[in-house]
Write a structure and sequence with these properties.
The complex is a heterodimer of chains A (353) and B (653). Chain A is α+β, with helices and mostly antiparallel strands and 353 residues long. Chain A folds into three domains: 2-63, no CATH class; 87-243, DNA polymerase, domain 1 (Orthogonal Bundle), CATH 1.10.150; 256-352, OB fold (Dihydrolipoamide Acetyltransferase, E2P) (Beta Barrel). Helix content of chain A is 44%, strand content 15%. Chain A has a five-stranded mixed barrel. A three-stranded mixed beta sheet of chain A has the order 1-3-2. In chain A, α3 packs antiparallel against α4, α5 crosses α6 (88-96) and α10 runs antiparallel to α11. By secondary structure, chain B is of the alpha/beta class. Chain B has 29 helices and 13 strands. Chain B has a seven-stranded mixed beta sheet with strand order 7-8-13-10-9-12-11. In chain B, α2 (52-62) links the parallel β1 and β2 (65-73). Classes of the chains: A alpha+beta (353), B alpha/beta (653). At the A-B interface, α1, α2, α4, α5 and α6 of A face β7, α22, α23, α24 and α25 of B.
């Protein structure tokens, strides 16, 4: 291009390419601009055209991604896409066990896999392995999702379990001697549901257990307490907060009827709406982006139980929307924008809940 | 007030690579030295040569002679200034730095005196600042000890290469110290020179130097007290500035030129620095590479392919001419080893354009089938080194690194370093702490003009931002050398036990022509490995990700529908938005998709033209007819760098 348009010699072209790719900034490139534009003018190209072409070179030089890099990566794209298409559960396990990676957090990966028919089963003190695994075709969350457990903690659980399953909470504590806060995490995350005892009840029991030197003295409280069970929503919120993933349905599934009654559109139906249509949606924030190139526009990705909703926030609305925490529940009113099959909602009003 | 009449060369000068001490980057110092009319300048950072590459580059650009050196810290804490005369001096200095760094906690050095004695060849020893062994003894009025120290150095470095260093910073006692040093020089018939122990290019930078000192001492300016330098005389001075300080001994200034003249060493490396790959008997590197490729060619193209044979012969010739066969063999060996351990691993980068890389299993892609350009990787006219970067399953990358260390020996392998700069955030935090302000105070928007403290703090932050703060281990960049590494480049211990890092980052290594092999960790490769194993265990024992034919229409339909969460590289929001417009339908489209959705093309407003053209909404036009040849494949938008290569391909007449 440098030769065809501006008559640069190969050596000059190479230096230009290096300067463009070096990331050293405008000072390093400026001398080339003059030579490029002058050379192009000498070959009968207008200054405006030459400057525009150079501008493109500059923009892509800063961040460009050579096609041959793309070639090697494209193989990985294909391989991962192949797994997603034909072996989504196996891919999910691979992804979950190698976090952090990629663009989406584990919670989104799990829900997306669920929408593709993958069964994801919760953490279970009797069944979960050190890492996430496939268990009869379903993905079983692994102990690696329990923050603070560490390799040593995992090993203690697995070793003790190999001898025999944990009979009850006292047995778990006695044989693993895990610190109480970790056991509490396991209980609240639902890993101990297998004993059929409600989680609050288990936490109460845990409080009454005493870790003694060698022989554990494990008195059962004299007067059993009746505690109200955790609601399904509370259970799911706890699982999400403690593990960073949740194996249940998206929180909005439970509210869909009420939302529909109030005129809210789900992500699937939103995709069918014509451009220019006003719509109201609800979702949890999964990504919030404000790329420098977007000139003050912000982009939100919301998730509901069916999929994703892309929201565009115009610059004048940005100051009104300060809450950007992921996981936040948000309702958005806006106007549907369509470009081919890509649908965005241009927000006119955002309300955090 | 530039004085051109008193010739002088600064032989003792610290840059910002004396971390948290020097306040100017090497090029600022070089610029200032050139403006002052100096013909040469020495860089003598504390126990490091990290600044050497940018320093040499800047000096060559300004046409002054760069003298490489170091102020080494000895066991016991005294300082000596060493300057490189020739290649042997460079080797010795590199080894001295490595020894000194190896014997002290990170960020410090302690060089044993007997080690110094073993590596004096090719070096000039200046007796150092006030903390030099000679000056320190004189300050304690122990003249006998001062003379013994000077004699010790003279006996090791030689009469001609031991130089008494005299400094005058207008401190009380500086004059007296200088007189004693001069007496000693006369007594031992040693040359004496003036130096200024420069810590910043201009006097105005003294506040920044104070801030850096306080940061280094982890204290505030107030608490640092007398540990800060007492005045602002440590800037780069002209001969004219220094002359009045040494009025009775003008030879102290002119002698600096004589010392500079002895330091003719030029930093240079070549490709021959790589270790020699152990080829089987009867083969040299070129021959063995050709043999491996020929064998692989028969497997990859069972029916034979005249085009492939031609391309192979061409590439092998270019590689042999560039003396890179050995390099290819080394990379091939690493890939082979990784694969044999079941570690996923593949070449990244322009190597994908090379048939040789494909035949050696370095690259997963047949460049002939996918029309990739070899010249992007290596060509006759490019003296530059090609890069072969390897992506390796992240969880097992360390194994591969260990293998390389074992194969070529710990003395021949090191990781490149990285420098983290202060950056906006740390600069703000540190300046606030040093000035006893809260960072909120500095952050509050408003006009700084009416608040001198804030104005000063803001200015200090601005100056601090770009300075290097820490030296760390690069995430995978590995340097291999044939000669023991410590004789070729300066190295120091990394935080990881047993691991050393080169004191140069990857750009610096590249600039001096040292081959680095990047072993990058890629978590997706680990995820693929795990998923593949699960598929084999549960569904299809013969499943092999590397044998996929890359042409399943269902895969492309899924990608085109942006159903890509969890898929490598095309899962993000931006990509999902573009995919339905792009509708990749084959592998070539996929390559375009990946090069397209990057910040660069987006900023250059090229993505949307390409998409509209592809969807047929907009006619295909070229900014100028001359560009048609280069851009036809991307419909007139210049979205991938191999366009650039094709443009370059057409440069060749």
């Amino acid at each position: 291009m440098a030769r065809d348009l501006a008559g640069l010699t190969p050596g000059e072209g190479e230096r230009l390419r290096r300067a463009l790719g070096s990331g050293k900034g405008p000072e390093a490139i400026a001398p080339f601009r003059e030579a490029f534009v002058a050379g192009a003018r000498a070959r009968g190209v207008s200054e405006a055209t030459a400057s525009a072409v150079f501008g493109q070179l500059e923009a892509f030089g800063g961040y460009s991604f050579p096609k041959s890099h793309a070639a090697a990566f494209a193989v990985i794209v294909y391989q991962s896409a192949y797994l997603k298409r034909y072996h989504p559960a196996a891919l999910l396990v691979g992804l979950l066990n190698n976090q952090p990676m990629g663009f989406w957090p584990p919670a989104v990966l799990v829900r997306d896999a669920r929408r593709h028919g993958v069964r994801v089963t919760p953490l279970d003190i009797q069944a979960s392995e050190a890492r996430c695994t496939l268990e009869g075709g379903a993905v079983r969350l692994g102990l690696n999702y329990v923050a603070g457990l560490g390799e040593a903690g995992v090993e203690r659980i697995l070793t003790a379990r190999r001898a025999r399953p944990f009979a009850d909470l006292a047995d778990l504590c006695r044989r693993t001697r895990l610190p109480k806060p970790l056991v509490e995490t396991l209980i609240l995350a639902g890993a101990c549901d297998g004993w059929g005892v409600e989680r609050r009840q288990l936490v109460w029991q845990l409080g009454t257990l005493r870790y003694e030197a060698d022989e554990l003295d494990l008195p059962i409280p004299g007067s059993p307490v009746e505690l109200p069970p955790l609601s399904a929503g509370e259970q799911q919120a706890l699982q999400m907060a403690l593990l960073g993933v949740s194996t249940g349905e998206h929180v909005l599934a439970r509210w869909r009827e009420a939302l529909t009654a109030r005129g809210y559109t789900g992500s699937t139906s939103l995709g069918q709406l014509p451009a220019g249509q006003r719509a109201k949606v609800a979702g949890t924030v999964v990504v919030h982006q404000a790329p420098p190139a977007a000139k003050g526009y912000h982009f939100l990705t919301l998730e509901d139980e069916e999929g994703f909703i892309n929201v565009i926030i115009r610059p004048h609305l940005v100051p009104l929307y300060r809450e950007r925490r992921t996981g936040r529940l948000l309702t958005v009113e806006g106007i549907v924008q369509r470009e081919g099959e890509v649908v965005n909602l241009v927000a006119t009003r955002l309300t955090p809940h | 007030m530039t004085d051109w009449t008193t010739p002088y060369v600064e032989l003792h000068c610290h840059s910002a690579y004396s971390l948290c001490d020097g306040a100017s980057l090497p090029d600022e110092l070089v610029d200032r030295a050139a403006d002052l009319g100096m013909q040469a300048l020495a860089l003598t950072d504390h126990d490091t040569l990290s600044g050497a590459v940018p320093f040499v580059r800047a000096a060559e650009a300004r046409g002054i002679h760069p003298i490489l050196g170091t102020e080494v810290t000895m066991v016991g804490g005294s300082h000596l200034t060493l300057l490189v005369r020739d290649a042997s001096g460079w080797q010795n200095l590199c080894q001295l730095i490595s020894h000194g760094q190896a014997r002290a906690p990170k960020g410090e050095a302690a060089l044993p005196w007997d080690t110094l004695a073993e590596h004096t060849g090719g070096l000039i020893c200046l007796t150092g600042c006030r903390r030099g062994p000679v000056a320190a003894a004189i300050q304690r009025l122990d003249m006998g000890r001062a003379e013994r120290a000077a004699r010790w150095l003279r006996d090791r470095f030689g009469q001609d290469h031991t130089v008494i260093e005299v400094q005058h910073h207008l401190h009380p006692g500086d004059g007296l110290l200088a007189r004693h040093l001069l007496d000693l020089a006369a007594h031992l018939r040693l040359t004496a020179v003036a130096t200024n122990n420069v810590h910043y290019a201009r006097r105005e930078q003294q506040p920044l130097h104070d801030v850096l000192t306080a940061i280094r001492l982890r204290t505030s300016l107030d608490a640092a007290g007398s540990r800060l330098r007492a005045n602002s005389e440590y800037y780069l001075k002209s001969g004219g500035r220094l002359r009045p300080l040494f009025a009775d001994h003008p030879e102290l200034l002119t002698n600096t030129l004589r010392v500079a003249e002895q330091c003719g060493y030029r930093l240079a490396y070549g490709l021959q620095d790589l270790p020699r790959f152990p080829t089987p008997p009867g083969y040299d590197a070129d021959g063995y590479l050709a043999r491996l490729c020929a064998d692989a060619l028969r497997c990859r193209y069972p029916g034979g392919s005249e085009r492939a044979c031609r391309q192979l012969a061409y590439e092998l010739r270019v590689i042999a001419e560039a003396q890179l066969s050995n390099y290819f063999l080394i990379v091939w060996d690493i890939v082979r080893e990784a694969r044999s351990r079941g570690i996923r691993c593949q070449g990244r980068g322009s190597a994908a354009g090379s048939l040789v890389a494909y035949l050696l299993d370095i690259s997963p892609i047949d460049p002939l089938a996918h029309d990739l350009v070899f010249e992007r990787f290596l060509s006759h006219e490019r003296p530059a080194l090609p890069d072969i970067d390897l992506d390796i399953a992240a969880d097992r990358r360390e194994e591969v690194i260990q293998y390389v260390f074992r194969t070529y020996g710990e003395a021949h392998a090191a990781m490149a370093c990285t420098f983290s700069t202060f950056g906006k955030r740390a600069a703000l935090r540190d300046v606030a702490r040093v000035l006893d302000l809260t960072s909120e105070h500095l952050l509050t928007p408003g006009d700084h003009a009416d608040d001198p403290t804030r104005a000063l703090a803001a200015e200090l932050c601005r100056q601090l931002e770009a300075l290097p703060r820490h030296l760390g281990q690069h995430n995978g960049g590995m340097l291999l050398t044939r000669a023991p590494l410590a004789t070729r480049v300066p190295v120091e211990p990394a935080a990881m036990p047993g691991r050393v890092v080169v004191q140069w980052d990857k750009t610096m290594l590249e600039e001096v022509g040292l081959v680095k092999i990047d072993l990058l960790g890629l978590r997706m490769l680990s995820a693929l490995t795990e998923a593949e194993a699960l598929v084999r265990a549960t569904a299809d024992p013969a499943f092999d990700l590397d044998r996929l034919t890359l042409d399943d229409p269902q895969i492309y339909q899924m990608i085109a529908a942006a159903d890509t969460i969890g898929v490598f590289q095309v899962e993000s929001r931006a990509q999902a938005q573009v995919l339905p417009k792009l509708k990749p339908a084959c592998f070539a489209d996929l390559m375009v998709a990946i090069s397209l959705i990057r910040p660069g093309p987006l900023q250059g407003e090229m993505v949307h033209p390409y998409l509209r053209r592809r969807m047929g909404i907009e006619p295909v036009t070229y900014a100028h007819p001359r560009l048609k040849r280069a851009l036809a494949e991307t419909l007139g938008s210049s979205c991938s760098r191999s366009r650039c290569s094709r443009w370059r391909g057409t440069w060749r007449v």
